[in-house]
Amino acid sequence: MRLLDEARVVLDEVLPGLDKRLAEAPLATWEQPDAPGLAVFKEAGGPALLVPQEHGGLGGDLLTATQVQRAIGSRSPSLAVATTMHHFSMASLVELATRSSGMEWMLLTAVARDSLLVASGFAEGRAGQGILTPTMTATERDGVVVLNGTKKPCSLARSMDLLSASVVLPGADGNPQLAIAVVPASSPGVSVRPFWNTPSLAGAESDEVTLTDVEVPQNLVVRTELVDGDRLDHLQTVGFVWFELLMSASYLGAATALADRLLGSTSADVGVQAQVASTIRAATLLVEGTATRPGAIGEDRLADVLVCRYAVQDAITRVLDLTIEALGGMAFISSGEVAYLAGACRALAFHPPARHRMASSLRDYFTGGPLRVP
Fold first, then answer.
1. DSSP-derived 3-state class of residue 192
2. Which tens digits make up the pLDDT trace of 50-104?
């Protein structure tokens, strides 16, 4: 399919054989609980995608990552969503390694060498709570940081090797300071139990992860910059940029797979087919153009990324509406894949920050104020 040709070529270049493996089985194979997708991703060396080459990784940039996620999303939305959470964590660790003389480089090397998956324990998914608000409580005791708390849903819950979690600790001046703790999944006190009760995206392993008196060495806890209220520090800004673009690309890949079914129909209206294909292509160009915007990542870049994400979200909604109507009721009834993709693609709207929560912040930003993430 021409809309996916370039992305699939890139995927095959950086992770040889992965696209072929995913194409060999039907969609349902990769979308069920305990699906083999994450194991196949690890076997292909996927966890090393963003690790710099000097640390044994593939050194993938933002454009390459969006193309990889779009290609994977077209084969398995669950796998794309789950691995986006890994890449989000890795992008943050890579940024830390460039600005710190700590142990981050050892973690990067281990991820690349051993193909480790890193889950994210940030505040995504908690209604009424800001994404920057930690889900874990942390105390310092006998030279270690002790964590308690729950993250639900937490993608990669059953396949993760490490968990990155945001915590608050006293800063050097005594004021609260945001920090990131990296927790081995095998640590005593880490437990996982079922949480995801819908068939959509079940392969992402978005279950509940609980930490009970988990001890984390100080060298696995990285303190970030002090920030003003809900203003983002640089590390958080970098993480958001990667998260929003890769998640947008992942769902765009899934929507493109649905559009492919429409383009392959001999009975669908040609005008609708052209409109759907053009909408997909426009959204793809928007994602890739945003990913390749020159300059350092900062507040302005993040604002553009959020605009891109919400525009892609709207484009996907338009594609779903046009495609399902054009394919007709029989296609929806007879093909579980059409119904599944239509439902799974809607989930982009559920990822933070929700459009309605960002409305006043974006208005303030575009009228000269700072960009805040509530």
1. strand
2. 999 999 999 999 999 999 999 999 999 999 999 999 999 999 889 888 876 667 7
Global pTM reads: 0.93
3-state secondary structure of 200: coil
Domain membership of residue 98 (yes or no) is yes
**What is the rounded CA–CA span in Å between residue 125 and residue 112?**
29
| Residue whose C-alpha is closest to residue 146's, from 165, 174, 125 | 165
Same domain membership, residue 125 and residue 95:
no
Same domain, 111 and 124: no
Positive or negative, the CA dihedral 343, 348, 352, 353 is negative
The C-alpha atoms of residue 228 and residue 368 are separated, in whole angstroms, by 17
Alpha helices (H) along the chain: 2-14, 18-23, 27-31, 37-43, 62-75, 77-99, 104-114, 234-263, 270-291, 299-327, 329-334, 336-345, 355-366
Beta carbons of 316 and 259 less than 8 angstroms apart? no
* Cα–Cα distance measured from residue 105 to residue 161, given in angstroms and rounded to the nearest whole number: 17
